[in-house]
């Protein structure tokens, strides 16, 4: 079974593994403007180059697919197992107590953007390939580590790669949690708009801006209003903010009051774990005595359809669930309002029972009634793999052997890298109960969990490819 050899190997290479994670964390690799030869910007391309150089230095076989994807092979035989990880990250955002692009180790954890999602797991997988090679374990087939650079912004990298290479017979991604994720909810990410006549009657709302990424519950939302004194706004907001459990900051300038609402960020798949400052801001502004106008009416309409704390689409008429995949969730994660138009972008994660008729059509109808217009797009279907498949059973066995815990299959709201890969599942790297603050400030990975993951990945490679 090689378990003792694997344990000894990673006890010797722990420091080296963590150092290589630190090198990748230092590269800011959120997507930026495309450049020649860099389809997702400088950062993702730089991270990919670094990762492939690390792999090459360890004697592994590498290939760069035009800076969309890089691959790492342990041999030149037919690939039986694919491990799919990504090197791009979401923007750091605010609220960090450490530098997000400098890995900090403390109390058995490493902090930094990408430590958990997904640079840390990617390096753990890379070292699993290295372990098999260094331990001279004979393989009859190849394992390929596939390193992508656009998972956070639509996975165009993987679409490009699989247009050139075939999908391995077995694929897993260390882009989630243990034991095994075999169901991923579908998704519906789109936007809505509203237009209205400019109205300068006072008091009025001049602008609202909140959110950076559609799949990320934001931390901040800002608004500029006119026609109220700072004291009037303070007297109104203080008890409401307390009720909504958000922080606020007020600034008076040129007869305008600038309002900043601070909530709690979270991954778009779990909006209930955050506290959305956009919906809090809409609740606050809708309750104030602004002059009557089309624009203010639209603000009240958005607040009606996306009330603060409604994570399940009840006000939109799309609240639903099923036993296998759980509840539908939705979050309004980007919002812009000016004197003549507004635009909101949401992230909806849908269970197996959801479809275009009972989600998209219902949302469109209810928005039209409120003077808002939904940008119609097809839903991204859910992903389901039979829990009795050979790969799933193999992963669960290794999990039980190495952790001593019962293995089971999970359903999640997040879409991982294997969402569109037939038979692909998610395996690791977070243990049950660990909240890594993914997509939030102070993201971290538990060192022992990463090392355990590397060991399990090594065992899986042996079991499938020997």
From TrEMBL:
Give the species.
Anaeromicropila herbilytica
Pfam families annotated for this entry? M20_dimer (PF07687), Peptidase_M20 (PF01546)
Q: Which PROSITE patterns match?
A: ARGE_DAPE_CPG2_1, ARGE_DAPE_CPG2_2
One GO biological process term = L-arginine biosynthetic process
The protein depicted here goes by the name Dipeptidase PepV
Q: Which residues form the Peptidase M20 dimerisation domain?
A: 256-288
GO function terms (MF aspect): acetylornithine deacetylase activity; dipeptidase activity; metallopeptidase activity; zinc ion binding
**Family named by the database record:** Belongs to the peptidase M20A family.
Q: Required co-factor?
A: Zn(2+)
User: Taxonomic lineage of this organism?
Assistant: Bacteria, Bacillati, Bacillota, Clostridia, Lachnospirales
Q: Which domain of life is it from?
A: Bacteria
